Amino acid sequence: MKPGGVRLTAVKNVAQRAGFYFVNFDDDAMPLDEFLGAAGQRLDRISKQSAAGFELVAGVHEYEISANYKLLVENSLDGYHLMSTHATYFAYMADLLKGINPQIGGSVTTLGNGHASFMTPVMSGRPVAQWLPHWGDEAKREIEEKRREVVSRLGEQDGADVCDFNSNTWIFPISIINDQQTILVRAILPLSHNKLRVRAWSLAPKDESPKLRQIRMENILSFLGPGGFATPDDVTMLEWAQRAYEHTCGGWNDFSKAMDPDEDTLNTTAVYDDELHMRAYWLQWDKMMSAD
Ligand SMILES: [Fe+2]
């Protein structure tokens, strides 16, 4: 065989938005910006955390969950479960914050084409740029400086938005970016109707100081990682839910909460514990699965 006689299929559609690269094997796929819709602005927002750009932190978390992947979609976008499912974490945070109440609030938004996001100002610490007392004075000085830089670059309102709000942005159908204690990109691989695999990578500013990088690395493990405060809670709940669906005859998962049946599910916003954005995901899923 001649050199180069066998090669991988070339991917014609490679595009990026705010440094996030997407590939598509469909030569007739719509342009990336059209596909992303308003989700593209969420990627822009994340990229504004650093004028120097981002790098991939070495290493990957990989784990499996015995549940349908769409349960993880709902879970990742849901604000309602946080205080109950992650009660241990919030008790831990209340102790660390010594008087600052880590109450959840914020909003959920549908972003078009099944994309959706959940944003909350909950006080859980962000290397860009929300300080927590147990990080110490050196980190406080650095984070205050970082905050000044972001605000001077983006203005008071946009700067506060970038610094203070955690967000989960779901990119339909199987990717999510958790912009919280770090920036975590999770790819969800459905393995069967009742099993999924998660692969998660962290991003960090290229010019991040050793101190803030250390905090970021500890954050990855302490909350978002598979052995952290959050993920084991969610994994347990998802697997219990999957077992319940398989062993009862109900056949339906009712996630109705506060939403008016007549509310518009396209490009609208609701309070953080609404189900509006979950419905938007399901509507897009139904549209694609029902297509000829
Ligand atoms: Fe959770």
TrEMBL record:
<protein>
    <recommendedName>
        <fullName>Aromatic-ring-hydroxylating dioxygenase alpha subunit C-terminal domain-containing protein</fullName>
    </recommendedName>
</protein>
<dbReference type="Pfam" id="PF00848">
    <property type="entry name" value="Ring_hydroxyl_A"/>
</dbReference>
<dbReference type="GO" id="GO:0051537">
    <property type="term" value="F:2 iron, 2 sulfur cluster binding"/>
</dbReference>
<feature type="domain" description="Aromatic-ring-hydroxylating dioxygenase alpha subunit C-terminal">
    <location>
        <begin position="60"/>
        <end position="290"/>
    </location>
</feature>
<dbReference type="InterPro" id="IPR001663">
    <property type="entry name" value="Rng_hydr_dOase-A"/>
</dbReference>
<dbReference type="InterPro" id="IPR015879">
    <property type="entry name" value="Ring_hydroxy_dOase_asu_C_dom"/>
</dbReference>
<dbReference type="GO" id="GO:0005506">
    <property type="term" value="F:iron ion binding"/>
</dbReference>
